[in-house]
Write a structure and sequence with these properties.
The protein is an alpha/beta fold. The chain is built from 13 helices and nine strands. α6 (128-138) runs parallel beside α8 (160-171). The relative contact order is 0.13. The protein binds ligand C2E and magnesium ion (3 copies). Ligand C2E binds next to β2, α5 and β6.
């Protein structure tokens, strides 16, 4: 069992570093139990390539199947996991889970990357880069199928090891995107220095297009900035056709949002991929 491995440090393949037991007292016991009982589940929200008009990957979004309270969304438990540090072992579980399911996604025709959210807190674990590398090897993950989504907060820290971790993984073929772009404190020099391949326009700006002149201008500016820096740009939270048309008109590369699909369970995502492949073949 994954958590036993973490606790007893007796794992033979040494893929996952032992848990820092000095931290454990701070974990929410219910969340710690949820990880041990594997009550977490990854949902996937497709990303749509606007030029090809097809699915070009997905974002993995965690859910908690609570035995009594039912399906819980991350806003109700991720902040606590970040505060206590439980996000570190949970984060490895997430990557492992993506690794286990990638073969089925490839089989269903996945052509693109799976985006995994990475909290600032996960960089405080010094084992982050080597552990991700080992997990990728263990699950024979093609590094070109993985992309980590970072927020501006993670990058603005001055810690050199955050940057060197990103560079190390990037040299292995893993890509990085900047999530919720425009809502944090990005410095343009960081955008230039770090191997960030994609900007994700925050939903709060997408909400105002078309119609709100400020949001329209911000969205256009982010698309231009991304392209001028040779990066891809994804709009998050696209809910209607008018937003989609605005984004197509302004040359956005990809979209994600309820207009195409909510985040869905693996089984449903695989069937979306299969449908997508059939349509591509026509
Ligand atoms: P995020 O990474 O910015 O993810 C996008 C959020 O927007 C997701 O919420 C998604 O379900 C939601 N969304 C997508 N399209 C639409 C839309 O058209 N309309 C509306 N109203 N919402 C839309 P979710 O799944 O609740 O996740 C919330 C946040 O929790 C994520 O924001 C991310 O910061 C965090 N999170 C989720 N999964 C993970 C994870 O595996 N690890 C970590 N560290 N954080 C995660
Ligand atoms: Mg994200
Ligand atoms: Mg986001
Ligand atoms: Mg967010």
């Amino acid at each position: 069992r994954y958590c036993q491995q973490l606790l007893h440090n007796d794992h033979t393949d040494a893929s996952i570093p032992p848990i820092d037991t000095s931290l454990m007292n701070g974990y929410d016991p219910e969340l710690w139990r949820a990880l041990q009982r594997e009550e977490f589940e990854l949902f996937y929200q497709p990303r749509i390539d606007l030029r090809r008009g097809s699915i070009c990957g997905a974002e993995a979004l965690i859910r908690w199947q609570h035995p009594e309270r039912g399906l819980q969304t991350p806003d109700s438990f991720i902040p606590s996991c970040e505060a206590s540090g439980l996000i570190v072992p949970l984060g490895y579980w997430i990557i492992q889970e993506v690794g286990k399911t990638l073969p089925a996604m490839k089989e269903a025709g996945l052509d693109g990357r799976i985006g995994v959210n990475l909290s600032f807190r996960q960089f405080q674990d010094r084992h982050l880069a080597p552990t991700i590398e080992r997990l990728m090897q263990q699950h024979l993950m093609d590094t070109r199928t993985l992309e980590f989504e970072l927020t501006e907060t993670a990058l603005c820290s001055d810690e050199e090891h955050v940057r060197s971790t990103i560079r190390q993984l990037s040299s292995q073929g893993v890509e990085f995107s900047l999530d919720d772009f425009g809502t944090g404190y990005s410095s343009f020099s960081l955008l230039q220095k770090l191997p960030i391949t994609t900007l994700k326009i925050d939903k709060s700006f997408v909400d105002g297009i078309p119609g709100n002149p400020d949001d329209e201008e911000i969205v256009r500016a982010i698309i231009n900035l991304a392209h001028n820096l040779n990066k891809q740009v994804i709009a998050e939270g696209v809910e209607n056709r008018a937003q989609l048309e605005f984004l197509i008109r302004h040359d956005c590369d990809q979209v994600q949002g309820y207009f195409f699909s909510r985040p869905v369970c693996l089984e449903q995502f695989l069937s979306l991929l299969n449908t997508n492949r059939r349509q591509q073949a026509l």
